[in-house]
Specification:
Elements: H1 6-32, H2 61-98
Length: 99
């Protein structure tokens, strides 16, 4: 039976916390705060065009921070799980060569 290194477990836990924290931050920041609106006046080149308010969505800073944390967590999870799978295969091949 193979043992998982303590550092790998720590990295997996931190990565999972980053993913969950980032997603929660994005959800809370996205729903709790109203999106900022930009009011500006400019020349309207087409007389029949209509520009309704709220047509664009602005991403707030907390949403960006949450997305960055979630992305970093996903990258760390992928790296740690890839390392664990590669280590397990390497140990399995070593045992087969010994037999």
């Amino acid at each position: 039976m193979q043992r998982t290194p303590r550092l790998l477990v720590i990295v997996l836990v931190i990565a999972a916390v980053l993913v969950v924290g980032g997603v929660v931050t994005m959800l809370v920041a996205g729903f709790a705060q109203p999106t900022a609106t930009i009011g500006w006046f400019a020349y309207q080149p087409l007389a029949g065009a209509v520009f309704p308010p709220g047509g664009g969505v602005m991403v707030t800073t907390p949403v960006l921070i949450g997305a960055a944390a979630a992305a970093l967590g996903f990258v760390a999870l992928a790296g740690a799980l890839g390392f664990a799978l590669g280590r397990g295969r390497q140990e399995q091949q070593g045992r087969q060569e010994q037999e």
